[in-house]
């Protein structure tokens, strides 16, 4: 395979890669359940997996009442996600989250708060979360976020195009978004909870990758159903098939509904078993979550001190 740091160059739409695919839903559900049941890291191994989850985390705030002060607090947590005594007990230093993710109007504040670090700022765009805006406005929002300093752009696809199997328009829209991103890496949010079938999830993922997505992402976090293990399994299989055809490694980001340290372990186990250890690095794997960081910190404090801390002892992201 090629260097994972190289961008996805994009490919012409080729329906033969996905149109005949039919996903067996019960089999996907059974495989996902078997994966997490067969592995349960303990003690220092569990601690190592949880630390890795932190460095792959997109610490996120996407609320209607976001302020520059809230973003600054989020960025402070991204710089120092664990309390000093936990970090010392683990023998670590310099641990940060993978990125900070905000709305376009908060990008500049995040860039200022992260100055002097290597933590990238990610911005949602394209009429997040519904994506129901004219394409020129969606592209303008991407360009605005990039101009403000976003190094990563999380775009949303038009779900209606998937539901009516208009793969050509979906490919063209995502390719235009990829061009608007310029040097910023593009994560394509499939909003899988709106796509009705796992077969649609696979097909949408393949079209997004053909159109140039550097990452594929499950959800906005605003759908009724967000990241699930069966959906993530299907997307991982699409990643694997795409890589086998092209030699290009595409990243994966589950998002929404993940709240516990156990969730962080489960998704990493799925990545390792289905795609290998390369997908346990932040250049190819991100966890779109913030609330799970508090539980991860509690579990790591327990590992270090032998005492289970109350949740109020750890600052929320």
TrEMBL record:
The entry's cellular-component GO terms read: cytoplasm
Q: Which CDD domains match?
A: DeoC (cd00959)
The record's listing under Gene3D superfamilies reads: Aldolase class I
Q: Write out the GO MF terms.
A: deoxyribose-phosphate aldolase activity
Q: What class of enzyme is it?
A: lyase
SMART domains, alphabetized: DeoC
Q: Which UniProt keywords apply?
A: Lyase, Schiff base
Which BP terms does GO give this entry? carbohydrate catabolic process; deoxyribonucleotide catabolic process
What Pfam families does UniProt report for this protein, alphabetically? DeoC
Keyword Cell membrane included in the entry's annotation: no
| Pathway linked to the protein | Carbohydrate degradation; 2-deoxy-D-ribose 1-phosphate degradation; D-glyceraldehyde 3-phosphate and acetaldehyde from 2-deoxy-alpha-D-ribose 1-phosphate: step 2/2
Enzyme Commission number(s) of this protein: 4.1.2.4
- Which InterPro entries is this protein grouped with? Aldolase_TIM, DeoC, DeoC/FbaB/LacD_aldolase
The text of the family note is: Belongs to the DeoC/FbaB aldolase family. DeoC type 2 subfamily.
**Protein name as annotated:** Deoxyribose-phosphate aldolase
The source organism is: Rhodobacter capsulatus (strain ATCC BAA-309 / NBRC 16581 / SB1003)
